[in-house]
Write a structure and sequence with these properties.
With about 200 residues, this protein is α+β, with helices and mostly antiparallel strands. It is about 15% helix and about 40% strand.
């Protein structure tokens, strides 16, 4: 005959067996995809129309784009020039749906966050997940901070993009449309001539 203590233990074990399994990662976000990103696809399809080089000693490199699907930005990808600035600030701005700065993050020192590995290498750093909506226009910016010589301002760009970014034209890729670019600060501006290589991971 079972004792009251034994019966209590049996009830406890039965309730534990019936309870749903607890998953520690139930609320964890999906992996941040940094290979085959929407931007990498757009950049790759334009490579034959220009030169992939490091140039333009301007503080801020930026481009505007429209996602074709809803996506969440989870990283930024970049490569510093041979002589990096002290810090980099990356921003994502909503231009027309809910105008404002959605993400602003500073990496210090830039040389450790984005080592000067040279083209075609890119280093990604995780950022606060930032949702983007299909059909809205966004701007992504890289701004060099704490620099002493202009060589610290240059960045990887794809030249020869004026025919694709002038007037109503755009760079139409599978998951995003790039509609304009602008490089400014300490000179310029240079508008719709090149495509800055500022990558971002998504999920």
């Amino acid at each position: 005959m079972s004792t009251p203590t034994t019966r209590a233990m049996m009830v406890l074990l039965a309730s534990l067996a019936a309870a749903p399994a607890c998953r520690a990662d139930a609320s964890a976000p999906p992996p941040c995809l940094i290979s085959g990103t929407p931007f990498q696809a757009a950049y790759a399809q334009q490579l034959s129309f220009g030169s992939d080089i490091e140039t333009y000693d301007l503080e801020t490199h930026s481009y505007r784009f429209i996602p074709r699907i809803n996506m969440t930005v989870c990283s930024v990808g970049y490569t510093s020039p041979a002589t990096p600035p002290g810090r980099y600030r990356f921003q994502i701005r909503d231009i027309n749906c809910s105008p404002g700065v959605l993400l602003s993050v500073v990496f210090n020192p830039a040389s450790l966050a984005f080592p000067p590995l040279g083209i075609p290498n890119t280093t990604h750093q995780l950022v606060t997940p930032t949702p983007l909506s299909a059909g809205c226009t966004y701007e992504i910016r890289r701004t060099a901070l704490n620099y002493s010589v202009t060589n610290q301002l240059i960045g990887r760009v794809l030249t020869g993009q004026a025919p694709f970014l002038s007037g109503p034209n755009s760079i139409n890729a599978p998951l995003m449309t790039i509609v304009s670019s602008k490089l400014f600060g300490g000179g310029g501006p240079v508008k719709d001539q090149v495509l800055p290589h500022i990558d971002f991971g998504t999920y």
